[in-house]
Specification:
Blueprint: E1 6-10, H1 17-30, E2 38-42, H2 48-55, E3 61-65, H3 82-87, E4 92-95, H4 98-103, H5 108-120, E5 124-129, H6 133-137, H7 141-153, H8 158-162, E6 164-168, H9 182-200, H10 202-207, E7 209-213, H11 221-225, E8 232-235, H12 242-252
Helix pairs in contact: 1-2, 1-12, 5-7, 7-9
This protein binds 1,3-dihydroxyacetonephosphate.
Length: 255
C-alpha cells in the first residue's frame, strides 16, 4: 500500500522567533518545487506565531507543537492547552517524546490523556515510542514497544488512528550520532505495525505511517526511508539547519 512519506523537523528547545524566520526564508529559497511528502516543523511554542506567519507563503509545510497539556484550561501554570495551539494554526502535536518521558516523567497514562485531549480539537498526533539501550539489551524491545502502543493508544478510535503517525525513536539513537541500522529500524517498524494491526486490524495498520527518529542525517536518510515499513523521519539535530533538513528530504524522498 502506498503511504505518503511524512518528514518532520523537531527543533526541541532550539531557535527563537527570529531564528525561525531566518530558517523559513532559507528553506523557501531551496524548495521551489513541492515535495512528494508531507513536511512538518515542530517548533517551540513561542516560535509558532512567527512560524505560522512565515509559512503563509510556503505550500505544503505544516506546523507542529512539541507537547500539549492534557487539561482543558485553568490553573496549570506554565502549560499550553490544545485550544491555544489551534488558535495559532497548529495542525500536529508531538506527544510522548522520550525526552518528555525521561526528563519530565510522562507516563503512558499521561501520554494517552494528552493524545485524547489533542484529538478533541482535531490535532493530528505524532506519537513517539522507543526503547532504551538497557531495555533492548535485556531482550525487552517488543514488550516495551507493545505496552507503549497499547497504553498510549487506549481508547483512541479508528478515526483517531487515521490522524496519527507513530514515530519510532530508539532512545539510544537520539542525539548520539548512533543510528539504528536500516535492518534494526525495519524490524522494529514491522513489529510496531503488527501491534497496531492486533488492535485496529490489518487495513488500518497498513495505512498507518511510521516515522523513524534518531540521528537521521542527509547521508543515511535514503537507506532508512527505503525500508518497506519506514514512512518518514522525525529529525532533531539535523533539522536545525535549513540546508541539512532540505537534503534529508531530497535524499529520503525520491522526486
Ligand atoms: P536527533 O535527530 O538529534 O537524534 O533527534 C531525534 C529526535 O529526538 C527527534 O524527535
Amino acid at each position: 500500500m502506498y503511504r505518503r512519506p511524512i518528514l518532520a523537523a523537531n527543533w526541541k528547545m532550539n531557535k527563537g522567533p527570529s531564528e525561525t524566520q531566518d530558517f523559513v526564508k532559507s528553506f523557501i529559497q531551496k524548495s521551489s518545487e513541492r515535495f512528494s511528502a508531507d513536511i512538518v516543523i515542530a517548533a517551540p511554542f513561542l516560535c509558532l506565531p512567527a512560524l505560522s506567519e512565515s509559512l503563509r507563503e510556503v505550500d505544503g509545510v505544516e506546523m507542529a507543537a512539541q507537547n500539549c497539556s492534557q487539561f482543558d484550561d485553568g490553573a496549570y501554570t506554565g502549560e499550553i492547552s490544545v485550544k491555544m495551539l489551534r488558535q495559532v494554526l497548529v495542525r500536529h502535536v508531538i506527544i510522548g517524546h522520550s525526552e518528555r518521558r525521561s526528563i519530565f516523567g510522562e507516563t503512558n497514562a499521561v501520554i494517552n490523556a494528552k493524545m485524547k485531549k489533542a484529538r478533541e480539537v482535531g490535532l493530528k498526533l505524532i506519537f513517539c515510542i522507543g526503547e532504551t539501550l538497557e531495555e533492548r539489551n535485556a531482550g525487552q524491545l517488543e514488550a516495551v514497544l507493545s505496552s507503549q502502543i497499547i497504553e498510549g493508544l487506549a481508547g483512541l478510535t479508528l478515526e483517531d488512528l487515521d490522524h496519527t503517525v507513530i514515530a519510532y525513536e530508539p532512545v539510544w539513537a537520539i542525539g548520539t550520532g548512533v543510528t539504528a541500522t536500516a535492518e534494526q529500524a525495519q524490524e522494529a517498524h514491522a513489529y510496531v505495525r503488527s501491534v497496531v494491526a492486533s488492535i485496529y486490524g490489518e487495513e488500518a495498520a497498513q495505512k498507518m505511517r511510521i516515522q523513524y527518529g534518531g540521528s537521521v542525517k542527509p547521508n543515511n536518510a535514503a537507506e532508512l526511508m527505503a525500508c518497506p515499513d519506514i514512512d518518514g523521519a522525525l529529525i532533531g539535530g539535523a533539522s536545525l539547519d535549513a540546508q541539512s533538513f532540505f537534503d534529508i528530504i531530497k535524499n529520503g524522498v525520491p522526486a
